């Protein structure tokens, strides 16, 4: 071998070694006291998101609310478009929902971990379909999908948590989350289903035992079963012993440890992950407790039970699921979690709906499918249903979806900053129109002020939806869609306001027109950099709350450069679609 070739070989070896070391830089995560740490002993705060809707569809993510378990959704699609075309739809769904570009984006946005909700039927046959009773047929599809996801995570140095979301037979009476068929034995009513669950985890652990970018195994998502009093406590909220749940989780852990001593085992209590009665103390020295938190206050008291478990058992805790709320709630929750050194995984990354980082667009043909399946419309023609479903399968791809920048900002910047920043670059020239819904990005009280900001119904017992129009943005501001492609701010209450950061190209006098719809009430004050501008505007009846007309304030003196313009509702009861700034000649 020539000297030049030897040098090239050595350089290549060193390059591969560096790449290998960098890919394993933090090594396996482990539980150390109350913390999750890497191999250097450094605290690791997991900031993650769940890939709900990929391997396992829950009906609400598709806006289906009747018979919304995945197997029933699939059967009902088959009645509309046939078995073969339904198979093609699901192939497109599975190949398009989550790809490397999605994981690349998560890394760029600030996430350092991903939770994969697995459906067992992508990895093994159901018990009743096994050719030989008591044996396990392994399916390559699920393992190949997991391998691909892991490779994308490794490329981005993002941790992957494997989560068994749908166990054989289904682990609860909330049917949709585990795709349970109540006509067949559940996980808790079938030893065969339990043995298959144990075997699946052993197979997964054996396959991924030496993969440091897998953070851990979330062995059973949200069990919800009343073992002692099924008739009156079907979801296990009042369960005191949880004997079958603990026995199964201990058995799964034992099977994992036969082939894998390195990975964290994550356990969840009964009652959707929070009822740990009878389950603790932990039985493994590399274990994490997962709690799920939705629709409750985000004060320190709301985390008291989580912190109590952590302190009592000297074990790390992790919020394995949270979300499905407004930006205000997200910012509050992340402040709470991180103040207490609790990692988190949001739910979900994408769905039809706007309170997640990625919004999947619906389409008119699919809307007909939804209407029919929900019992609200006539059966669509096969061609219409097929077109709608295939368009939906195309639109789940990131490049065809809507990235909700306000949601991402609320998760990664707003918990740690009170600064409002522009939602859009508002360059004010001779004649500029700004959409009312494009107010600044930031926390409530800095970028806008709204009185109804989030859903706290678990704590209050009252429905407070935040954005009542459920459109365009996920703040507390109420936004409705108009009859065309646009949006407007609606349900404005006394004292609420919106702020717009503007860049004025040339100083001078400007006339301002607000496009307002009023049924006879409303009063507006404009503020520039915190100071009132001109007189307050008393609004007149425009003919209704969907009939917009301009209200003008003349002669506003705008300095050049960056300014903050606020529209304050001294008296609410009107809607607001746009504002126009026109420089006087």
UniProtKB/TrEMBL annotation:
Q: Which SUPFAM superfamilies match?
A: (Trans)glycosidases, Galactose-binding domain-like
SMART domains from the xrefs?
CBD_IV
Q: Supply the PROSITE patterns for this chain.
A: CBM6
Signal sequence bounds: none
Provide the family line. Answer: Belongs to the glycosyl hydrolase 5 (cellulase A) family.
- Any GO molecular function: beta-glucosidase activity
Q: What is this protein called?
A: Carbohydrate binding protein with CBM6 domain
Alphabetized UniProt keyword annotations: Glycosidase, Hydrolase, Signal
Q: Per the database record, which ranges form the CBM6 domain?
A: 454-582
A biological process (GO) of this protein is:
glucan catabolic process
List the record's Gene Ontology CC terms alphabetically: cell surface; extracellular region
């Amino acid at each position: 071998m020539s000297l030049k070739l030897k040098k090239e070989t050595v350089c290549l070896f060193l390059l591969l070694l560096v790449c290998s070391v960098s890919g394993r830089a933090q090594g396996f995560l482990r539980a150390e006291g109350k913390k999750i740490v890497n191999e250097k002993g450094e605290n690791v705060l997991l900031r993650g998101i769940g890939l709900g809707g990929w391997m396992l569809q829950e009906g609400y993510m598709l806006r289906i609310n009747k018979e919304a378990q995945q197997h029933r959704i699939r059967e009902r699609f088959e009645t509309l478009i046939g078995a073969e075309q339904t198979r093609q739809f699901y192939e497109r769904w599975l190949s398009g929902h989550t790809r490397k570009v999605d994981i690349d984006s998560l890394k760029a946005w600030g996430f350092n971990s991903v939770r994969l909700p697995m459906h067992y039927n992508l990895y093994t046959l159901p018990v009743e379909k096994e050719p030989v009773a008591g044996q396990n047929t392994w399916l390559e599809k699920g393992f190949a999908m997991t391998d691909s996801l892991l490779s994308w995570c490794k490329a981005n140095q993002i941790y992957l948590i494997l989560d068994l979301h749908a166990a054989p037979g289904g682990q609860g009476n909330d049917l949709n989350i585990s795709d349970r068929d109540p006509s067949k034995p559940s996980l808790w009513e079938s030893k065969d289903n339990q043995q298959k669950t144990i075997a699946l985890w052993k197979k997964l652990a054996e396959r991924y035992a030496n993969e440091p970018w897998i953070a851990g195994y979330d062995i059973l998502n949200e069990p919800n079963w009343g073992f002692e009093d099924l008739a009156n406590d079907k979801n296990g909220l009042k369960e005191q012993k949880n004997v079958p749940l603990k026995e199964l989780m201990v058995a799964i852990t034992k099977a994992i440890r036969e082939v894998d001593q390195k990975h964290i085992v994550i356990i969840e209590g009964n009652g959707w992950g929070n009822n740990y009665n009878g389950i603790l103390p932990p039985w493994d020295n590399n274990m994490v407790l997962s709690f799920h938190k939705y629709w409750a206050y985000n004060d320190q008291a709301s985390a008291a039970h989580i912190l109590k478990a952590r302190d009592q058992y000297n074990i790390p805790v992790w919020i394995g699921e949270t979300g499905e709320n407004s930006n205000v709630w997200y910012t509050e929750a992340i402040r709470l979690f991180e103040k207490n050194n609790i990692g988190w995984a949001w739910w979900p990354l994408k769905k039809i709906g706007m309170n997640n980082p990625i919004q999947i667009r619906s389409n008119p043909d699919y809307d007909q499918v939804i209407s029919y399946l929900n019992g609200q419309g006539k059966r669509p023609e096969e061609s219409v249903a097929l077109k709608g479903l295939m368009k939906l399968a195309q639109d789940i791809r990131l490049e065809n979806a809507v990235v909700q920048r306000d949601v991402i900002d609320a998760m990664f910047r707003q918990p740690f900053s009170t600064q409002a920043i522009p939602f859009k670059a508002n360059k004010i020239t001779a004649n500029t129109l700004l959409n009312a819904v494009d107010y600044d990005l930031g926390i409530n009280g800095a970028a806008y002020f709204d009185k109804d900001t989030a859903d706290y119904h678990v704590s209050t017992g009252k429905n407070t939806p935040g954005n009542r129009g459920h459109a365009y943005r996920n703040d507390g501001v109420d936004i409705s869609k108009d009859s065309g492609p646009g949006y407007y701010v609606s349900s404005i209450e006394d004292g609420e306001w919106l702020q717009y950061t503007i860049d004025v190209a040339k100083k001078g006098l400007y006339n301002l027109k607000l496009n307002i719809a009023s049924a006879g009430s409303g009063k507006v004050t404009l503020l520039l950099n915190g100071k009132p501008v001109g007189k307050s505007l008393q609004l007149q009846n425009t003919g209704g709350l969907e009939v917009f007309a301009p209200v003008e304030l003349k002669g506003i003196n705008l300095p050049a450069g960056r300014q903050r313009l606020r529209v304050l509702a001294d008296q609410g009861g009107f809607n607001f679609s746009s504002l126009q700034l026109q420089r006087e000649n």
